[in-house]
Amino acid sequence: MTAGEPFQCGRVPGERDVVATEFSTAGTLAARRIGRRDADVTQTRSAADDLVNVEPMNPIRVLLVDDDPLVRAGLSFMMGGADDIEIVGEAADGSHVAPLIAELRPHVVLMDIRMPTMDGLAATEALRKRPDAPEVIVLTTFHADEQVLRALRAGAAGFVLKDTPPAEIVAAVRAVAAGEPVLSPTVTQQLITQVTGVDPQQGRRERALERLTLLGEREREVAVAVGRGASNADIAAELYLSVATVKAHVSRVLTKLDLNNRVQIALLAHDAGLLDGVE
Question: How far apart are the first and last CA of the chain?
Fold first, then answer.
């Protein structure tokens, strides 16, 4: 796995399952992003003293949202063995999410799509509008699902199937906590092609093209490459840039287009027709 390349947990027909092999790296990145309080040291302390007094890394705080208590119990059990993950709460419906977010401050939400009162799509849309919103991983039974694609458009970091092996779900939580999408743009493209009638509205391409006018020429090239599923290292090699420069371009694209992650960049590039003919 190269720097900047997203962990793939969603599965599509014809693709081999991807098993994360760098769980510890993802966990470390996640812990750094979440925050680690520095030890209260003075200038008179030695470097060795500083290392001894650094406090442990904070665990990744996870909220489970599913109307099936057995699913919640299973998820809680499988993640309970991970030292760097803490289940801070559970909810049986999307309508319960907002108050729990305010109270528990989770870093990651595992969100079921189909729930009785407020579904996971509506809950995700509302959640991602909040300042400092936690990352959302959608739980689903079927990968080729219109609701999954809509959740990705709403800002979910990706999706996992409910029958995904436990180790991959744990790796997915670590990945999104580290700021990486669970679903690569390549798999997103394949999801788009399998879901028919996703959005009956006319003018989606025109709106997407209009939004992309906010980008400079180089930023647009980077956005298209992200849409193809290229990693930062791949884009750097293709455009003769440093990886750091590519990361800066990706950050500017996200800011200018008011997007949350690389998956949304891929969706916008697809909507604009910039990925037509891309395998």
Answer: 21
- Residue 264, amino acid: Q
User: Is 248 exposed, middle or buried, given 0-12, 13-18 or 19+ CB atoms closer than 10 A?
Assistant: middle
Distances in whole angstroms, Cα of residue 47 to Cα of each of 35, 44, 50, 228: 21, 10, 5, 46
Phi and psi of 259, rounded to 5°? -110, 165
Tens of pLDDT along the chain (279 residues) come to: 444 444 444 444 444 333 333 334 444 444 444 444 344 433 334 433 443 444 445 899 999 999 999 999 999 998 888 899 999 999 999 999 999 999 999 999 999 988 989 988 899 988 888 888 899 998 888 666 677 788 888 888 888 888 888 888 899 899 888 877 776 555 666 666 665 444 545 578 888 899 999 999 999 999 999 888 888 899 999 999 999 999 999 999 999 998 888 888 888 888 888 877 655
Parallel, antiparallel or unpaired: strands 108-112 and 85-91:
unpaired
Q: Are 235 and 241 in contact (CB under 8 A)?
A: yes
Q: State both tokens at 101.
A: 């977010």
Q: Which residue shows structure tokens 């305010």?
A: 102
Kindly calculate the radius of gyration of the chain based on its CA atoms and give it in whole angstroms. Answer: 19
SS3 for 160?
Answer: strand
Amino acid occupying residue 226: V
Distance (Å) of CA 235 to CA 7, 225, 228, 240, 250 = 17, 6, 10, 8, 10
Helix (H) or strand (E) holding 159: strand 158-161
SS3 label, residue 208: helix
Predicted TM-score (pTM) above 0.70 = no
Q: In what order do the strands lie in the sheet with 135-140?
A: 85-91, 60-65, 108-112, 135-140, 158-161
DSSP symbol at 49: H
